[in-house]
Amino acid sequence: MTVSLFLRGLIFGVIVGGAMPMHPASGRSLAQIRQSGQLEIGINPALPPLAQYDAHNRLEGFDVDLGRQLAGALGVAPVFVTLPSAGRIPYLIAGKVDIVLGGLTRTPDRASAIAFSRPLYHEEFAIVSTGAARPQTIDDLIARHARLVEVRGSTAVYFLQKRAPGLPMLLLASYPDAVRALAQGRGDAMIDVIEYVGRFLKAEPDIAWQIARGIAPDAGEDCIGVAQDDSELLHAVDRVVGDFERDGVIRALYWHWFGVLPSERAP
User: Fold this and answer.
1) Contact 204/180 with Cβ under 8 angstroms?
2) What global pTM score does this model have?
3) Residue 119: which of 241, 262, 260 has the closest Cα?
């Protein structure tokens, strides 16, 4: 889902705000956040189901619900700052947000500029298919010369170009388009991050979807980004995330917004 590289973030920072500071992120302290009564949270409303605008132009999604509960646990109100994927790190470094979400995966380049919370979840590749073939591995797809349906520009496309370059691939603009095409028989299978595909399968309730998980290493750890020098805020965020894991909060949000459960077969 999140294929933006750190370099793209640097370019965005130059475009929208002049030369971006080439130093670790520095933001408000936890005491300053509590004194203000607000936690400024960066989210990308163009990344459903993480965040999007509903029919009434209100923000909703996994990140929105998580941000509200996180702010509440810290004793403050959430203030959502919308930004593009490429703006996540520049906004944090510039102090325009206190934390950032938006499918932020941990990478060495990013970790040199910001701090990461403990993982919220691991992005997991899965094979989605229909019918009786039930492919369980990428090698199954290669052996059958399966026709893939994928979303143009997604993480999965870059992964498949290296892992299964010989398979024919129908590239479409969105997850709803790709799921619809697969349901119509225009392809045999789809590989993508199950967290982002699962919810769209419900739009085709007459299809007996088959989902094979654990087919590849995790696509990445999705975390909360925090200013690198703000260890107190990071520790507070980690403590709350740990509580949410123990109390089932993240699991419930995961099911509600992604349509699957962590490391379990989708219904």
Assistant:
1) yes
2) 0.72
3) 241
pLDDT digits 0-9 by tens, 205-256: 999 999 998 898 877 889 999 999 899 999 999 999 999 999 999 999 999 9
pLDDT band of 25, cuts 50, 70, 90: low
Strand 38-43 to strand 99-105: parallel, antiparallel, or no bridges (unpaired)?
parallel
Q: Decide if 39 contacts 70 (C-beta within 8 A).
A: yes
Listing DSSP states for the chain in one string gives -----HHHHHHHHHHHHSSPP-S------HHHHHHHTEEEEEE-TTBTTTBEE-TTS-EESHHHHHHHHHHHHHTSEEEEEE--GGGHHHHHHTTS-SEEEEEEE--HHHHTTEEE-S-SEEE-EEEEE-SS----SHHHHHHTTPPEEEETT-HHHHHHHHH-TTS-EEEESSHHHHHHHHHTTS-SEEEEEHHHHHHHHTT-TTS--EEEE-SSS-SEEEEEEEETT-HHHHHHHHHHHHHHHHHTHHHHHHHHHHSS-TTS---
CA distance 224 to 242: 13
Q: For residues 228 and 65, give the distance between their C-alpha atoms in angstroms, rounded to a whole number.
A: 24
Pairwise CA distance, residues 140 & 124, whole Å: 18
Residue-wise pLDDT tens digits, 49-78: 999 999 999 999 999 999 999 999 999 999
